[in-house]
Amino acid sequence: MTTNTSNRQGSLRRRHSLTEHAAQAAIDQACRRLRLPTIRAVVDDAVEAATKEQLTYQGFLAELLLAEVDDRDRRSTLRRIKSAGFPREKWLTDFDFTANPNINPATINELATGDWLRRGDPLCLIGDSGTGKSHLLIALGTAAAEQGYRVRYTLATRLVNELVEAADEKQLTKTINRYGRVDLLVIDELGYMELDRRGAELLFQVLTEREEKNAIAIASNQSFSAWTDTFTDPRLCAAIVDRLTYNATIIETGTNSYRLAHTRARQTL
Length: 269
Description:
The chain is built from 12 helices and 5 strands. It is of the alpha/beta class.
């Protein structure tokens, strides 16, 4: 028997004499020191349940540890969703596929599995305002965060402004690397505003940093053929389209606004 094993067994024997009150205090203190808040919160109920169900010591310990693990996973998921920077909560279960027949539920369900994220493929949602692009972007990004992926959401103009400021402050490489490291970069409202050449070039650097390594998802109200209105340099525009469409899933959400139709339907009631 090793010294460490002997010491542990001696420690356990000494604790057999603890009163119930002392044991409760010791559990509380140990959970605080070991940072086990879930076990600390549920241990009394777990003891009662274990007694009723006649769990073995190992079964009781397993229940406690699994409760802690499950709660840590839940908190980690919430942190990833929060750190993604989504402007509002959107879920795939809330999306009304009947309101937009252009969107195939099977395609969205396949995307929700996350295979495209593992491959580092792009996703492009193209369509007019009110057709569900942002809802799907946020919901798919949330699903990715739930699966353990690091996600970052941003508006196209906000990203470009941040890149320009970083370049002026000699922090461009650091900023591009930061956007390059996340598993999924979600860029909303690409094409809503014209970008000057400098801004477009900086955006291109981010896309190049992520190419075939980490996934990117974009939403635009402009068809690819009209992107020259956003990226005024034809060659740069072609290069950006090439980066975003290679191995991409492209979903055209159409031109009929769900929000407008919903508003009109309410007004006729």
